[in-house]
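idk why but the lab printer keeps eating my pages so im just putting this in chat instead. protein + S-adenosyl-L-homocysteine:
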Amino acid sequence: MNVRDSEHMIAELNKKESYELTQNVEDADLIIINTCSVREKPVSKLFSEIGQFKKVKKEGAKIGVAGCTASHLGKEIIKRAPVVDFVIGARNVSKITEVVNKKGAVEIDTNYDESTYMFGEYRSNPYKAMVNISIGCDKSCTFCIVPVTRGEEISIPSNLIIKEVQKAVDSGAKEITLLGQNVNNYGRRFSNNTSGAKNFTQLLREVSQVDGLERIRFSSPHPLHMDDEFLEEFAKNPKICKQIHVPLQSGSTNLLKSMKRGYTKEWFLNRCAKIRELTPNVAISTDIIVGFPGESQEDFNETLDVLEKVKFDALFSFKYSPRPHTEAQHFENQVESDVASKRLQKLQARHKEIQKEIMDAQVGTRVEVLFEELKSDGKVAGRSDEGRLVMVEGSEELLGKILPVDIKSANITVLHGVVTE
Ligand code: SAH
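predcted complex ->
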């Protein structure tokens, strides 16, 4: 989502101002740091990065801070780092061309409704495009700062989404990733009256009818909103890639309750089993937080149990980080840091073994790959339908094509194969 916000800012600065991208920070007239605030670490890195940029930037070059840390620290940023010219929140990226010319501007209003705003066009990958379908988040997960930084959840009318998708396809995109903090809760609240899709499943159907579009992905869904109708559409719609993120957070029903996730361990396992039943070749990924307040050894064992039962393709795991404006920062029973670290290590080590088994089992299979990047060693890289990184020998002729590949060898992150035709 932050990558997409960056693309929007680049597009606007391109269209309405005379800025162009440079690869050299020393040449830049404008430096924008787009930030995350989900965990503490990126926030503390911000100020050291500002210091680095201050040292290398050319005279008169402006520095701006964008994104979620901008939303939650606001003018504090300029107070702590006066070299910063402007601050622009995650919800306000469409105002980039206004703030860029206003020294000291702080634009962080989360009520600001930019959901129907049509941005200029820019994307980092010619074959893949991201399209926002909703902004903000209405959940109240007790660990999470996102609802505060990105504001309330608003869905974008589907006719506008279809237009964006069509535009991307017309300029060469083969694959679209639909984006929302809570993407499959689409339709909860619209910015204006809309006659199109009213829920995520209907939206997927509409998007898949766009001529020339070959692949659809989405990020990130919530397990609670994975009803049967959605999982059936996911399974049977050939344009939807068979990769799904099902963020677990914890395998303990007690902890899920104090996280306010709205589901139980059993519901989670039931949804994953249903996904596999309907879509046998699916790749399932997840997010897990360890060391959430009150997490006992038994709670953690429940998480390990889900790992064994689901066997995730990819795991994004984090040590709990107390965040401002969240309920959980005030919870008692905060878990000791070294206990949490040990649990994280254990979880990641077991996941690595599982991941190796999954990747080894790909050898001898045939997968469909969208080739997207030329590597310096004569290899071309792409993603299989299931989202796995695949490399083959080849040249730029492969770029932008979707072709069958026979997998010959694997390591924990990459499949190596040959294009077959
Ligand atoms: N709505 C998005 C959330 C993005 S944050 C989604 O569902 O994917 C991505 C992940 O960061 C979350 O799923 C969670 O695992 C992790 N996370 C969020 N807040 C956290 C915190 N306070 N400490 C540690 N990890 C956190």
